[in-house]
Amino acid sequence: MNVGELTRDEFENAVKNNPVGIFVIGAVEAHGPHLPLNADTIQPEWIAKELGRRMENILIFPSINYGLHSSTKNMPGTVSLTFDTMRALLYDVLVSAHEKGIDKFLIMTGHAGSGHMTACSEACKRFVRETDCKVMFLTDYDIAADSPDMKGIEGDGHGGMLETSRVLAIRPDLVKNIRPIGLYSDQGFMIRSSAEVCFPDGFAGDTSKASEEIGKRINAFVVDKLEEMIKNGLV
Amino acid sequence: MNVGELTRDEFENAVKNNPVGIFVIGAVEAHGPHLPLNADTIQPEWIAKELGRRMENILIFPSINYGLHSSTKNMPGTVSLTFDTMRALLYDVLVSAHEKGIDKFLIMTGHAGSGHMTACSEACKRFVRETDCKVMFLTDYDIAADSPDMKGIEGDGHGGMLETSRVLAIRPDLVKNIRPIGLYSDQGFMIRSSAEVCFPDGFAGDTSKASEEIGKRINAFVVDKLEEMIKNGLV
Amino acid sequence: MNVGELTRDEFENAVKNNPVGIFVIGAVEAHGPHLPLNADTIQPEWIAKELGRRMENILIFPSINYGLHSSTKNMPGTVSLTFDTMRALLYDVLVSAHEKGIDKFLIMTGHAGSGHMTACSEACKRFVRETDCKVMFLTDYDIAADSPDMKGIEGDGHGGMLETSRVLAIRPDLVKNIRPIGLYSDQGFMIRSSAEVCFPDGFAGDTSKASEEIGKRINAFVVDKLEEMIKNGLV
Amino acid sequence: MNVGELTRDEFENAVKNNPVGIFVIGAVEAHGPHLPLNADTIQPEWIAKELGRRMENILIFPSINYGLHSSTKNMPGTVSLTFDTMRALLYDVLVSAHEKGIDKFLIMTGHAGSGHMTACSEACKRFVRETDCKVMFLTDYDIAADSPDMKGIEGDGHGGMLETSRVLAIRPDLVKNIRPIGLYSDQGFMIRSSAEVCFPDGFAGDTSKASEEIGKRINAFVVDKLEEMIKNGLV
Amino acid sequence: MNVGELTRDEFENAVKNNPVGIFVIGAVEAHGPHLPLNADTIQPEWIAKELGRRMENILIFPSINYGLHSSTKNMPGTVSLTFDTMRALLYDVLVSAHEKGIDKFLIMTGHAGSGHMTACSEACKRFVRETDCKVMFLTDYDIAADSPDMKGIEGDGHGGMLETSRVLAIRPDLVKNIRPIGLYSDQGFMIRSSAEVCFPDGFAGDTSKASEEIGKRINAFVVDKLEEMIKNGLV
Amino acid sequence: MNVGELTRDEFENAVKNNPVGIFVIGAVEAHGPHLPLNADTIQPEWIAKELGRRMENILIFPSINYGLHSSTKNMPGTVSLTFDTMRALLYDVLVSAHEKGIDKFLIMTGHAGSGHMTACSEACKRFVRETDCKVMFLTDYDIAADSPDMKGIEGDGHGGMLETSRVLAIRPDLVKNIRPIGLYSDQGFMIRSSAEVCFPDGFAGDTSKASEEIGKRINAFVVDKLEEMIKNGLV
Q: Does the model's ipTM exceed the 0.95 cut?
């Protein structure tokens, strides 16, 4: 059930069953010349929807459409929150949803940058300490990267074969008819004011290997894994 | 154009034309027994989409799906940000979008509570002082309330005839088949810890007068007015 | 009783009767060429004093002499706090006064700008949520604007006929011997970095209609209404 | 000139002469059984007024009526700000007054607690670093304590002979007809949650030695010294 | 050169050569039953000292002795900062050292928790954006984990074979005569209020394989690598 | 016992005896041409160590090596925290150490600037209010200044005869072979953006009178006094 489409009373009834509340955290972020800026929203939203289709007792909240970006911060189209805003935003919605009776949460972010992940996990940790709710926080990217299709693939990352395949499987109309190759330029431990130097092409990976079929398999793999994790961890 | 569906390069090109960036601020808020929680998202998103259809050079950013709620804060289904988070969130996206070349903004919020409006306007004011960008900030509710169909209607407010009609015109499937009457209980100048006492029914107005036709006229009235305002103020 | 003029022990005794504590919030703000900068302090201080004269069990605290200004911020003589400072200041004095045994408060601000009002009401709301004290928060301007003398008067606002009359009735020596006319220039929904453009004359209204007699009637009207409100809401 | 009583245009003219702006910081603080809660407001306000009478080109701003209290925090009648609020409040008014053309400031606080003094001096230091304005910050208490009448007096402090004499010289009607003796109980370096243990009587000193005559001499001494300091430091 | 042991003038001279400033971030953190609480201070301090011995133009600042801890937060002996304090602390010392003429920094933390790393890297990123200084930020743990001695070792982590060997090589007197085995209990993506459940033994790894010789080799490997990195990145 | 050198279990055992936890706050601060930058760390660390040698049940935590500096802020070698960071840092370590079972604390700072002292005492006060722990907060400088050797010495202060003697007694190798004379230039109540004008020589006092013997006597005096104070206040 999409929380936004429920009435007050339908929500109140739904909460009585001790549901899992899902918050998707999307992004508006440059993903190379071939993928749409909302690639990190499309992917976890599809996963959430599929989980909602498969499982009982799932409440999908409207997405948080913005995240915290570092290495792609200066690229055209990226819209980034600051660390403190991202942390406060997630904390606030968790607190407010919990006040309305939700005690179990899956927070799934499409974007997986380390600053972003910490901002979100700091919010989750504080929330869990204060409420003792059950919270699972993850990026679907990490699960997808463990899928059989990614075995042996090296140098694939932001906007690469994995993401291109997944978006092709969900919204092929939003993927351009180019399959470029992007390199990752390791900066070692140097902190760069122009952090985008690590992505000279704006993304990393060989997208010529991407396909809708692979994307479908990866997406299904993610849903399978998550269904299992939710059953073990949240239900 | 929906920003989220553009690639990095399409965004970069679009920005060259000095477009108006639109941010819709929605809400997850109890709207009585008949309307969906996302009523305040549906309405301005429809308006933004229609403006994008009518006018050249409009960039619609993904919606901010949460707002700040006071009188409905404790009702089932309402998910509220705190004042500082709402203010920081809007400020951050404006700053980041401006860094990417947008200089003109329409910020349109569906929810119109006074704390929410001030949180947003404080963000806008700081942003304008620092950047000298052109910013128009409003709630489409205020414009709708000036439409001819609302002449002489008294006591209509949150979740009332106006909102019911507008949602009926956009997403009739989300409106329940009841047309209840809600009273507003004036608390004078008392600050209430249970602010919801001002909405004993959870909404205010006589929704039996609501209709899809009225909603369509009101929505068209809002788009007309906004098109004119944008042409006068932002273009 | 003026709290400042009490000794520690007199205060302690006064608190035993469960009094209403009054905090006046004044301002240092440009009010056109005819009115003093402290017009917004003079008016509510007079009202508070009169309430103290009429009613038992009223404790008037020293005034908060500064407020938050937006549209007059850049005018000569205006001294403005920031939003967060205004909110913190009011919150702090409420908390501290409550720790000393006051459970009922009237907070009356002379200035009535929307940012200022929200800063104060956010402080009040947080305080009420945390303490369950009884708090009435208002600007005497709003009550004055409902007085019979203002019926049919249009375009009167900041520093206009209403305020000129009221200050004439309290401190005629501080009103200059000019009765200018000031226009309000509506900026629609545009956020202006030079917000003072809405007051090209620095005030709004036709002060030629102002008089001490009108001011006295309005002031009496405000005291009458407040006395009633306090009796209904706080006592 | 009292800033509050000036019009916008009078203020603008006054600023052209590069005046010294005076901000008095008062307090609402328990001062034993004999002195009023606003003792720390009365004293510096009188000094400021006298300076304004003696010197040209002085602008006296409305007082900040609340301060930060530590050892008297829990006593009846004390109303205290927190450290951050006190610091922000003084910083804000300095910044705003400077934006209106004042470049030289005397900030005079009646209360002299160490936390309060640091909150104010931190605000002043930041302000001076950012603007290079001339700022003199002091408590008139420190100057008064150097007056000839205080030579050889030991154990006199908060609410003692010095303050009692000074208030007697300014507002004798507010001093009770008792002249108690208060001891100071040294707590060494222990941080006490009940900081008032250092003032078992609520004040410190032998007030039987206080008199209006002494107060007048001390007040005159303070004004003389300040006039000299202002001439050397600010003019 | 140890900054703390220099005089003002020696420091001023040293800075003229455009040196690399090194800040070690240590910790007070439980490391199992066998290692001292300051294990994460001892290791990077030794590395810094050795770098200072080998290279010209190195200024070693006094260590920051506390870090941010999450999974070991509740264990006996761990003393943790909050995220915002850690971030502010590192930012402040960088800004202040840069104001004194240092433009190149190596920040080396012994503790490597993800929240801690992000707090530090957020400070570094802000500092680099604002000053364009050269900053290298790393944990010596990550380099050590790449040493040949760690090839093929699995399940070694906090307080394990790697750390035990390294501390044995530096301060053998602080290592207890036990070589316990600690398991890591993977919590998947669950956020735990008792985060220490992931370290049921308080550390992870088979310390029976630890030795002073291995520690010496690893420490030398880290110094070699860092010397090279500094030469490539900072000199 | 040095906390850093204890294992988790040794710490846990030590805490059972209800020990006094000592936090030394040092500094990196210019102390004239003759003393090392860490003079304010060396002195209280030696005192803490000696207290640990003399008394049972003392736990010495790793030092906080940075403080807040105002008048020496711009001098070569000084590294300063901001007020809020210093306050947060001390508060955090106290809270975290208390969560691990310490209820009695001696916080001893070498640096004694008034802003620094208030930042620390504000942290201590908040901590004591929230936990009711026993906390003694002081600078060893203040005790040293009361020693017989300082009787009749005038104009001695930062980096003067007292500090030179004490450092000579502890680390003579770090004191240069010069004994300069430094003047203090009183700025009255003026807030200076270049606060270092009060120390034209960078320190204050006649160091030609300094000697190791005097330093030893002063250091012993401080330890004697502190031992007594701890026994009276904390044990």
A: yes
